Amino acid sequence: MTPSGNNPAEPATATNAKPANAEEARVESGAAVLEGRNLRKVYGTGTRALTVLDDASIALRKSEMVAIVAPSGAGKSTLLHLLAALDTPTSGAIYFDAKALETRNEAALADFRNCAVGFLWQRHQLLPDFTATENVAMPLLLRGGDSASALETARKWLAEVGLSDRADHRAGELSGGEQQRVAIARALVTGPRVLLADEPTGDLDEQNAWAVFELLERLHRAHRLTSLIATHNLALAARCDRIVGLEHGVLRTREAQASAMGTLGGEAS
Ligand SMILES: Nc1ncnc2c1ncn2[C@@H]1O[C@H](COP(=O)(O)OP(=O)(O)OP(=O)(O)O)[C@@H](O)[C@H]1O
Ligand SMILES: [Mg+2]
């Protein structure tokens, strides 16, 4: 399960095998900001072993906004967690700026998790008894930042997501859409280059879902992010640069429009 191009010490720029679909071709072209190559993830062992990702490859190029659309249980969260180094693959490798994560020491990995990637959790996981500002400032404080400047930066981010007037409210008192905007501010407060968003509109009504998605689009452009967004919403996904399907543990790229028409999952044309 470890093909020749899967040496973690080398950036993924070449392999002898012919690309099977557009996603693999993209991976092979190199120049990705964040890349997962031949990812396999098996939970459990023996008769309880569950293979969620089998041979999943994805390359996110600078400034791309990519959607992953796949059924519940297909492995979207699993993939995002691997790409954010929140979990480790059974085999395969993750590259950031063409350097394999597994070649980095613990301090560099912590830096990658805290600064290079902003992660928007499927359940936003705000601390309900802390204010919106304190929640947004948390990643900066965990990094050992000065508390006054962390809170000031957090307020700027709350302004950017349109929540200045809720800055001193407890997170638990905010609406679902407001909580998601706080979570977005928290994900971006450290100035990451990549945003990984796990069903950011999943718990929202249609109107709030569009508002949150438009906010993500605006922030993506304004901060020159590279974004990967897991969603069940094909209409929202169709606004991304491309859509990736995840089927039987393998990722396949489809053109946004074709995917939105419901033809996800086949070989790329
Ligand atoms: N820590 C774990 N241990 C064992 N199995 C797990 C673990 N995490 C996820 N799974 C299983 O892996 C599969 C994929 O889960 P995952 O959460 O990645 O799916 P998903 O595509 O994000 O689904 P959803 O759209 O419902 O969020 C599921 O069958 C799940 O039960
Ligand atoms: Mg999920």
The overall pLDDT, averaged over residues, is: 85
User: What name does CATH use for the topology of the domain at 62-85 and 107-260?
Assistant: Rossmann fold
Most strands sheet: 6 strands, mixed
Task: Kindly name the structural category.
Answer: alpha/beta
Radius of gyration (CA) equals 18 Å
General shape: globular
Characteristics:
269 residues; alpha/beta; Rossmann fold; 6-stranded mixed β-sheet; 4-stranded antiparallel β-sheet; disordered N terminus; binds adenosine-5'-triphosphate; binds magnesium ion
Structure description:
Helix 4 crosses helix 5 (147-160), helix 4 (132-142) packs parallel to helix 6 (176-188) and helix 5 (147-160) crosses helix 6 (176-188). The protein has a domain at 62-85 and 107-260: P-loop containing nucleotide triphosphate hydrolases (Rossmann fold). The relative contact order is 0.17. Residues 1-20, 24-30 and 256-269 have low confidence and may be disordered. A hairpin with a 2-residue loop joins strand 4 (91-96) and strand 5 (99-100). It is of the alpha/beta class and 269 residues long. Strands 6-7-8-3-9-10 form a six-stranded mixed sheet, with helices on both faces. It is 33% helix and 23% strand. The protein has helices at 22-28, 76-83, 106-116, 132-142, 147-160, 176-188, 206-222, 234-237, 256-260, and strands at 32-43, 50-61, 65-69, 91-96, 99-100, 117-120, 194-198, 226-230, 242-247, 250-254. The chain binds adenosine-5'-triphosphate and magnesium ion. Magnesium ion binds next to helix 2.
